Amino acid sequence: MTMAKIGLLITKLNGGGAERTAANLSCLFDEYGEEVYLITFDGSDITYPYKGNLIDLSLGINKNIFDAIKKNIKRIISVKKIKKKYNLDVCISFLDTPNLVNVLSGGKCKKIVSIRNYLSLEKPSFIRKKLIKFASIKADKTVCISKNVEYDMRDFFKIKEEKLCTIYNPVDIEKLLAMEEDYIFDEDFHHYFNIVTMGRLTYQKGQWNLIYAMKDIIERHHNVRLYILGDGELKNELKELVAKLKLDDHVFFLGFISNAHKFLRECDLFVLTSLFEGLGNVILEAMALGLPVISSDCKSGPREIIAPNSNITSVCESMEIGEYGILVNQFSKDKSNVDNNLFYLKEAIEMIYLDQNLKVKYIKKSRMRANDFSKEKVYNEWMTLI
Fold first, then answer.
1. Are 8 and 25 in contact (CB under 8 A)?
2. Ranges of the chain with pLDDT below 70
3. Residue 60 to residue 143: CA distance in whole angstroms
4. In CATH, what number does 178-372 get?
5. What CATH homologous superfamily does 5-167 map to?
6. Residues of the chain with CATH 3.40.50.2000
């Protein structure tokens, strides 16, 4: 079988979920013998491991609108040349600007754009909405990270169904379980019920909801701790909230850990409080490591992972005991008005804390569900499309 020449177009290889997905796909395609070209706007600061040939355009951050126009013209010209030089069979792009560069650079290769978030919830401006729609119309296919994201592209952006498909992110279970980066735990760690959440400290991730919930949890159960993994613009604000609620002895910020999986494996429960997601790949990673999962029923992804046999367009208004975890209501987007939205989150946490049988059940179910997102299955779906 002839290997495919695959281009992956992304802004950079650090910081976000789309960037990590591009890096992971480079490893996946390379492992199965495909010829991979990873094209970045800025390859100066790489934190995600990748495989294949790295092509750094060195056309990174835009200083202003005029600089953005100038750089995008250069990006389009450069990518057009790369497609021709390496005779690419397909170019897969991630995020708004790379998607536009992909379709505008043309070429004989198949052009696939990738949508990683439930974009209508971001309330895109008129111009951004038009550009997103333009890229999807001009592409040969738009690959969405979840079914609900696919429905959002169909209903909000009016993209024809035949242009859309869903391919979930893969989980390399063997790799996660094999990671043995040392993490030094304090001597009391295993005397506590340890809750963990992981993701950028941004408005989207809504970590303040979990911090507020922890105040009541800890008042009733003193041996509970929360570990927050990740960095971002809300870090200082969230730390101030922890201090204000006098939770410094129970809530800890560990920052960004390049290989956090050794730490996660030792925790008792994973909680996601996002206001919106594309898929929530961190849920799958936690499941692969055997953690019970509680998540907000945000758009989109968590329901498709935790309760796949339910109506994936429905929305939980209280608490739902899913087949593979627990869903709770969506959270308020107003950081000053959270109290009425946290009751079921606290109930769900206490259920896992108090019911050892339920915890063990979800440990087993988590590992089972992660297998449905195996790298082999996802690779075959991509190659069928390519």
1. yes
2. 1, 179-184, 339
3. 25
4. 3.40.50.2000
5. Glycogen Phosphorylase B; (3.40.50.2000)
6. 5-167, 178-372
